[in-house]
Amino acid sequence: MARRHNRLAALLLAPLLLLLCGSFFIPVARILVTAVADPELSEALPRTAALLRGWDGQGPPPEPVFVAIGEELAAALRDRRIGRVAQRLNFEQSGMRSLLLRTARAGVTSRAALVALDARWGAPETWTLLRGAAGPATGLYLLRALDLVRSPDGAIQPVPKDDALYRTLFLRTLWIALVVTAICVVLAYPVAAVLAGLPPRWSRIGMLLVLVPFWTSVLVRTTAWFVLLQREGPLNAALVALGLVDQPVQLIGTRFAVVLAMVHVLLPFAILPAYSVMKRIDPALMRAAASLGAPGWWRFLAIHLPLSLPGVAAGAAFVFLLSAGYFITPALLGGPQDQMVASFIAFFMNQTVNWGMASALACLLLAMAGAVLALARGLLPGVLSGRFRA
Amino acid sequence: MRRIFAWAVLLFLMAPMLAVVPLSFSGSEVLRFPPEGFSWRWYVAFFASDRWLLASRNSLIVASAVAVVATLLGTLAALGLHLARFRGRGLILALLAMPIVTPSIVTAAAVFFAFSVVGLTGSLVGLVLAHTVIAVPFVVIAVLASVQGFDPVLLRAAAGLGASPAAAFRRVMLPLIAPGVATGAVFAFATSFDEFIITLFIAGPGQFTLPRQMYASVREFLDPTICAAAVLLFLCSLVLLLLSEAARGRR
Amino acid sequence: MRRLGLAAVMIALAFGASARDLTVVAGGGPLQDHMRRTLFQPFAAANGIAVADTAYDYNVGPIRAMVRAGNVTWDVVLVEAPDLVQGCDDGMFERIDWSVVDRQKFLPGGTSECGAGAIGWGVSVFYDNHRHANGPASFAEFWDVARFPGRRAMRRGARMTMEIALLSDGVAMADVYPLLATPEGQRRAFARLDQLRPSLMFWSGGQQPIELINAGEVDYAFGFVGRTANAIRAGAPLALRWETLLYTYDFWAVVRGSEHTAMAMRLIESLTDEAPLLALSAAWPVNPVTASVARNPALLAANPLMMSNHVDGALRMDTEFWLEHGSDLEQRFTAWLNR
């Protein structure tokens, strides 16, 4: 009987699992691959790539490599396949694009002719670079996403100070996510506790005030903040009226605006699971403790806090995960110094079309999220069901 | 004291939406508070704008399709999980929840790369598939919650009384899970209706949904029409919330 | 349930649409509305075909994706110069058939292997002339916060910003790009940006500089001249300085693998022809790259705010430079912004 049940269960589960594989698991697995894949050179210049992989990297490469690259560059230009490899190499080393295009146009196919065209063809660094890009895998993007580069002799070193960006970015993302999470927890805890203790009618009204914003589109809420925080908007008007500031202050484009709106958007995610857990704490326990003479703070520490902790932790984990990947709020309300990892992933995906870099950043973000998820493991199912029991 | 704090936080949660309402009836072009005059002109502008109407239409089509697909697949899967007695059950449940705990920008990037290879970007099918992925866990959880406590023996009993499996399902199971299915459907619809980042990347140029149109408007042309749009969307969410509450009430 | 599934399939089919019309893609907004009336529809009528048009946000990611997947649904696209050249090397765009499109009719630099010049656009300094009777008329003055105190708005990005940083430091126009290609030149540009930084605000959407000026958030802005000119025509009290103009062209290109390639070439020939462009310019003063229109005396005299009146002596942005140094400089610029 159980076996038949299991077969039926598998049948029922199959369609969804198939869909999730095709539209989620395989794509996510693929970005892990894209982050380290290095296909451009070997696709555009297959013979050169094969020869370079067989070359020991000592001294200048043998003559056939020069012949191959000369011929293949010219062919790639003719067949219009040269753009991606040019972009790939130029990303690692500015100037490579024009070198490749110039060589391709010249159509020269010997060592002497290549070096005569551009002295860089005689330099070992050029060939080390090409050899490193011959595939199939590269650490370039992941290293860059950590502000590291590989020097020509193969050592990993930090990028020049003026180019360092991504470590700051990840630390900032982590910091903003933690601040937002902390504020959400601090605000959510008393709200959930008060709501859980209210008589049903009032608690229902209170929950409605949580659920209405929860159901309202994130974009609507962010837009609302965008309007409210305008120089001539209501918040500034209130600040001036209260005499807190002499004239309207700039709020859009500040960290304050980003954190404020993110807290607003994510707060329900912290309140709902905390509430659903607190609701299940038996009031008799607290009463019993009180009748045994335990003082209020002790009752809270000994009973309420431990019992409500799973819900709070689940909510916190959820808020953290959501805020770590945030895009809309920093994009609309933040300044250049408030952008988070997500906006850079978007930049590389859409504007410079650098999939390797976008994937590398996404992988690191995923790793960061995964680490937090690991910390909160076991507590998370509560948050999901919390959304419904609310 | 604690109560005052709690109600203040709840007020903070509601305030932005309430503050936008008067602005949407502003008589002037500038978003100044308090608004000058009263007019319906920004609502008129919303309904006269091809872009907003197209975006509304697209959002409705996509969200309805997502609700149908996600509810169908999610309900089946939840029933499967309920029946399942094999060891991997917990793992499957965790897998099904993955899309909601994965940062959405990562999902967006992954889906964009994968779909562009197979030509699904810029298509309705692609958009519905991608939205279904993040909507379906809610359906599974809602339906699963509603079948919890249901004993499969009842189904066998019905079969023993001569009902066909289909009839047994319809008569015994369906009424029981209907509230969960309805809740899940509303959630799926709302999730898709609200989705922005994935849409931003995989939707085609003509596939403006309401969130995408809203984002473009804030970045490009800020006028009170956007407040009117926000209020209208807010009303939609209220309707969805009421629907989900009604579905839960039937349980 | 089955009925619902059926409905889903039907919706999908309805969206999937049948045979595809010739599709033009441009930047949207009022300009595209005018293009539809003066350029696309007359061509459709003259050739007895349907021409559909749609808008995009100049992100070429989707074009790359559709070519790669062999699922091309756009035919003619308005693209920015760097994307055109990069995409041409990549085989994203068809080579222009110069036997169909007349290559002689364009301004110098108005054609390339895969693109035919469409419209010019530029960036320059402007300000509210009610608040400031006098404003910076050069980049040196734009940087001069002693003479012109107040906040400045600039584009959030390296392109257009690095150039003006060097120009503000007295670098001659001809030397800007060669210098910017060197580490010293880049350091010099960032040093200039450092000096102005306390007074700087950055915009990312094209309408933002005007909104920032209107809202009084900044005193002087560096933004798109077309939008500023439109605001002036609509009555905004803005002074647009032409001494600080940087400009470039956008191009029409045909997406590779388009099933309508031949018709697309004919469309491009028509899009860049004198008569339709004059009709478009009468309605919406763009800056055509077709020489006879760009230099049409009557048109120029009637539209003093047309950029074509002012490009002599302005800096034309260097497409190849940005392809070569863009990824480096954008990263360094973002790193600078984030410090």
UniProtKB/TrEMBL annotation, chain A:
A biological process term (GO) from this entry: transmembrane transport
Keyword annotations from UniProtKB, A to Z: Cell membrane, Membrane, Transmembrane, Transmembrane helix, Transport
Any one Gene Ontology cellular component term annotated for this protein: plasma membrane
Database matches in CDD domains: TM_PBP2
Domain ABC transmembrane type-1: 170-376
Topology term for the membrane: Multi-pass membrane protein
InterPro entries in the cross-refs: MetI-like (IPR000515), MetI-like_sf (IPR035906)
Gene3D superfamilies: MetI-like (1.10.3720.10)
Transmembrane domains' residue ranges: 174-198, 205-229, 249-272, 311-334, 355-380
Subcellular localization: Cell membrane
Pfam families, sorted: BPD_transp_1
Family according to the record: Belongs to the binding-protein-dependent transport system permease family. CysTW subfamily.
Protein name, as recorded: Putative spermidine/putrescine transport system permease protein
From TrEMBL, chain B:
Intracellular or extracellular location(s): Cell inner membrane; Cell membrane
An annotated GO cellular component: plasma membrane
Signal peptide (residue range): none
Gene3D superfamilies with a match to the protein in the record: MetI-like
Residue ranges of the TM segments: 60-84, 91-118, 124-147, 176-202, 222-243
Keyword DNA damage: no
Main location: membrane
Family: Belongs to the binding-protein-dependent transport system permease family.
Protein name per the record: Putative spermidine/putrescine transport system permease protein
Taxonomic path: Bacteria, Pseudomonadati, Pseudomonadota, Alphaproteobacteria, Acetobacterales
Automatic annotation (TrEMBL), chain C:
Gene3D superfamilies tied to this protein: Periplasmic binding protein-like II
Organism domain of life: Bacteria
Signal peptide: 1-19
Pfam hit, one: SBP_bac_8
Entry keyword set: Signal
InterPro entries: SBP (IPR006059)
Protein name, entry field: Putative spermidine/putrescine transport system substrate-binding protein
Organism: Humitalea rosea
